[in-house]
Design brief:
Elements lengths: L44 E7 L6 H16 L2 E7 L1 H13 L6 E5 H9 L7 H6 L8 H6 L1 E2 L2 E2 L2 E13 H7 L7 H14 L17 H6 L5 E4 L2 E4 L4 H15 L13 H9 L5 E5 L2 H8 L7 E4 L11 E10 L6 H12 L1 H11 L2 E2 L2 H10 L5 H10 E2 L5 H8 L2 H10 L5 H17 L1
Length: 435
C-alpha cells in the first residue's frame, strides 16, 4: 500500500527580500550541465508555454532567457503566455489534437494527470545525469512522480504556515506555539486580552487549512493500494485531526460563525482590517499585507504549523513544474531549457522577481540561513514539512467538487458531526476514485 510520503527535506507573492540574498546552486551560471549542452541546435525553435502573471516582469525575464538560450544552444525560444483560468482546457485540447508545445509550465496537480495519459516525457534519467536528484524539494518531486517515474522538474512553489499579529502576542506575553495545545492556548490568550478579536478563524471554504491537522494527526486524504485509491479522510487519525481543527471554532469559540463560508481571501482581508489574531495563510501573504497595509510592517510575524506534540504538521506544497511533452521531437533541447530555468542563475532571478521559493533544497536552505522573520518560517515549512495531495487526476475532480470544503462547512455549521461529515466526504471521494 502506498501512503503519502512524509517530507523530511522538503503559489504567490512571497517577500522577494528573502530570496534576493540566495546564492545560486551548483550551476550558478545558469548553464546546463547535461551532455546535450555541447550540441548545436542552430535553426531550431523551442515552443514553451508559461502561465501568465506569475512574474510581473515576465517579458523582460524571458527576453534575457531567450538571449542566453540562443548563446548556449543556437536555438530560438518561442514563449507563449497562457492564462491560468483557461490553461487546463487548452492543454487537454492540445494533447487530444497532438499540438502540444515542446515544454510547458504545469501546476503541480496537473503533472500526474497529463503523465497518466502518456502526454509527458519521463525525465528521471536526465535529472539523475544532471546531478540534481538529491537537490530537489521532495514535496515537488512527489507531485511529479507517477509509478516511480518523474514527469516534471520542480521549478517554484509556495506553502502555507501561520501568519500572526506579533505585536498582540508580545503585549499578551505569548510565545510562538510549538504544539497544538500551545496553539490553542495562544488563541485563548489572544481572545482574553483582545475582546472582539477573532483569534484563529477556521475558513470553511478552504481545504488547505484542514490538511495540516489531518496529516499532523497521522491521517491522510487517500491512499493507493495497487492501482486503486481509497479515501482515508474518515479514518480515526484523520477524524482526530479534524476534531481538533474544527473544534477550535465549534468548541473553543476561537473563530467566528461568519468564517464558515470564508475563503482564504476573506482571511486576508479581515487580517488586514485588524480583526484577526493569526491565520493559516500562504508564503505569498506577508508581502501582500505589507503592500496593502504598510503600517503593519512591525506588527506581523510568521511561524510553521506546529505538530501535535512536537515537530511540524505537513502543509500542502503547491507550485509549478516544467514538463517536456512526449510528442516533442526536441527532447534534448527541451531538457536544456528546463535545466536552465530551474537551476542556478535563472532559478534565482525568477525567485527574486516573482517572490516564489525555488525547487532546490540548497537554495531553500540559504533562505533559512538568512533568517528573515517573514520568510524563513515558510522556507522551514517547505524543507521540513511540505506535502502533496494524492497524485492522480481523480483527486483533481474531488477538488473541483469541493468535497473537503463541503465537509468542513457541514461541521462548522453544526449540521453534521466530524465523523458523519468525514464519512460523507469519504464516500464521495471513493465514488470518484471508483469511476
Amino acid at each position: 500500500m502506498q501512503r503519502r510520503s512524509t517530507v523530511a527535506v522538503t503559489g504567490t507573492l512571497l517577500l522577494a527580500l528573502g530570496l534576493t540574498a540566495c546564492g545560486g546552486g551548483d550551476s550558478s551560471s545558469g548553464e546546463s550541465t547535461g551532455d546535450a549542452a555541447a550540441a548545436d541546435h542552430s535553426g531550431e525553435t523551442l515552443t514553451v508555454w508559461i502561465m501568465e502573471g506569475t512574474n510581473p516582469d515576465g517579458d523582460a525575464f524571458f527576453d534575457e532567457v531567450t538571449t542566453a538560450f540562443k548563446e548556449e544552444t543556437g536555438a530560438d525560444l518561442q514563449i507563449e503566455f497562457q492564462p491560468w483560468a483557461s490553461a487546463h482546457d487548452k492543454f487537454t485540447t492540445s494533447i487530444a489534437g497532438n499540438t502540444t508545445p515542446d515544454v510547458a509550465e504545469l501546476g503541480t496537480t496537473w503533472t500526474g494527470e497529463f503523465a497518466e495519459v502518456g502526454a509527458l516525457s519521463d525525465l528521471s534519467d536526465k535529472i539523475k545525469a544532471s546531478g540534481l536528484e538529491e537537490d530537489l524539494v521532495p514535496g515537488l518531486v512527489e507531485s511529479a512522480t507517477l509509478d516511480g517515474a518523474r514527469y516534471g522538474m520542480p521549478w517554484y512553489a509556495g506553502v502555507r504556515s501561520i501568519v500572526y499579529r506579533k505585536d498582540l502576542f508580545e503585549a499578551a506575553g505569548i510565545e510562538v506555539p510549538t504544539t497544538w495545545a500551545e496553539l490553542q492556548t495562544a488563541a485563548e490568550t489572544l481572545k482574553a486580552a483582545n475582546p472582539g478579536l477573532i483569534p484563529f478563524p477556521i475558513a470553511g471554504d478552504s481545504q488547505y487549512g484542514a490538511m495540516p491537522f489531518i496529516w499532523g494527526a497521522g491521517g491522510d486524504l487517500a491512499v493507493k493500494d495497487g492501482d486503486t485509491w481509497t479515501s482515508e479522510i474518515n479514518s480515526p487519525d484523520s477524524v482526530k485531526g479534524l476534531e481538533f481543527y474544527t473544534g477550535l471554532a465549534t468548541e473553543a469559540g476561537l473563530s467566528t460563525a461568519a468564517a464558515t463560508t470564508w475563503k482564504e481571501t476573506d482571511l486576508l482581508s479581515n487580517f488586514e482590517q485588524g480583526n484577526v489574531g493569526m491565520m493559516i495563510s500562504g508564503s505569498w501573504t506577508p508581502g501582500k499585507i505589507l503592500t496593502d497595509v504598510p503600517d503593519m510592517a512591525d506588527k506581523i510575524g510568521a511561524f510553521p504549523i506546529p505538530g501535535e506534540t512536537d515537530g511540524l504538521s505537513d502543509s500542502f506544497l503547491g507550485g509549478s513544474h516544467l514538463g517536456v511533452f512526449a510528442a516533442s521531437e526536441k527532447q534534448d533541447l527541451a531538457w536544456e531549457f528546463v535545466e536552465m530555468m530551474t537551476t542556478g542563475k535563472f532559478a534565482e532571478e525568477w525567485g527574486n522577481q516573482s517572490g516564489y521559493f525555488p525547487g532546490q533544497t540548497s537554495l531553500l536552505e540559504k533562505v533559512i540561513e538568512e533568517n528573515d522573520p517573514l520568510v524563513a518560517p515558510f522556507a522551514q515549512q517547505m524543507v521540513e514539512a511540505g506535502a502533496s495531495v494524492p497524485v492522480t487526476p481523480l483527486y483533481g475532480q474531488i477538488q473541483g467538487k469541493k468535497t473537503v470544503e463541503t465537509m468542513l462547512q457541514s461541521i462548522l455549521s453544526g449540521s453534521a458531526t466530524v465523523q458523519e461529515a468525514a464519512d460523507t466526504a469519504a464516500a464521495d471521494m471513493n465514488e470518484t476514485f471508483g469511476s
